[in-house]
Design a protein that fits this description.
Elements: H1 3-12, E1 24-28, E2 31-39, E3 42-48, H2 55-67, E4 71-75, E5 78-84, H3 91-111, E6 130-135, E7 143-148, H4 150-165, H5 171-196, H6 201-204, H7 206-217, H8 225-253, H9 258-271, H10 273-303, H11 306-317, E8 321-322
Antiparallel strand pairs: 1-2, 2-3, 3-5, 4-5, 6-7, 6-8
Helix pairs in contact: 1-3, 4-11, 5-7, 5-8, 7-8, 7-10, 8-9, 8-10, 9-10
Bound molecules: zinc ion (ZN).
Zinc ion binds near residues 123 and 125.
Amino acid sequence: MKSAEFFHECGRRGMPYTADEVRIFAVASGVPFIIVHIGGNLFNAGFRLDSKPSSEEKKAVKSALSAAGLKCHISGIFMNVRVKVAKGSDAATAVDTVLAGANKAIEIGRNNGIYFSDICPYCGHGNTDAVMCYEKSTDRFQLSYRAVHTECVNSLRNAANEAKVNDEGNYFTGIIGAIIGMILGVVLNVAVIFGTERIYAMLCALIPLGAFFGYKLLKGRMNSFAIVISIICSALGAVALTFGVDIADSMINYDFTFEEAILLIQYGMAEMPEYADAIRSSLLQDLLFVGLGVLCCIGVLRKNTNSGKAAYAGNLYATLRMKDGSLPAPAVNTVDDTASHGA
Ligand SMILES: [Zn+2]
């Protein structure tokens, strides 16, 4: 059984799956769960429970499932069920087998007091009508497939799209914030480079991060300009870093004043070729490291713009299914977000 065939069969039946073809988001008997192909003819159906089962309940479920030929492991609020597919079966049979195993596990679980996901993570209430991906950085597995209310997710997605359409930020105050944030990042890097005589790409990431969150803090418009200004500030930051280290060296090790240190740089650049060469090569190194720093954090920056947030909400929304596995009816009064559906 090839993984890709299994995933495509699931996709044909309307189940969403991750682009890396690792997780399938499925729903059986109204319960959301995640299918993973462990390898060979072995699959795992992972359920998230609304409450921790007692050890008696765990024992009862385990033995009832093993009598039905299914291995099960319950840890906290996570229940994993292993489903074996007969060797040589085609993708359609394999999917049927896994879904049948999941249905069996849900039936046996319910009979033994297991509460499968029915509480909406957005409002905290039960009586949900749909399932959707939900991500929380404090969760053990971050991305989970959860029971939700279509009403809750629709209002959430509309809020994200409206923020994207009606961005009321101010470029001017944002740019000031970006410059202040960049300077803070540079000062920190100068201190570390001066103290340890080393440069770190991870610390250099503080320069674009400082610029971006400075821009955000001073209410810049959170569109793609936020990223452009952060990158421009980072390039300026690399230049400031090069001269900053040089100025710190003159002031601390040679007791020059700030003005004298600047004069020394001007003199050195004009009259001393070795000095100019040394500055140029450290500038090149700083640009490289700040560039690496930008690469380290570009994902965080993208995710924090309004268009990034709307696209992210759109990606989660693409995994919304009704409890019978069918697609949701198109929501009324939504802001058009056709541009934000890319995975
Ligand atoms: Zn809700």
